[in-house]
Amino acid sequence: MTTVSCADLPLPHDSGVGVLNKASLLLSVLEEGPASLSTIVVVTGLTRPTAHRLAQAMERLRLVTRDTRGRFQLGPRLGEMAVVVHGDRMLALAASVLPELRDRTGAGARLYRRREDLQLCVAGAETSTAGRNTVPVGTAFSLRSGAVAQVLLAWEEPEVLYAGVTRARFTAAALTQVRRRGWAQSFGTWDTDVVTLAAPVRGPGGRVVAALSLSGPASVLTREPSREFGGAVIDAALRLGEASAG
Question: Is the model's pTM score more than 0.90?
Answer without folding.
Answer: no
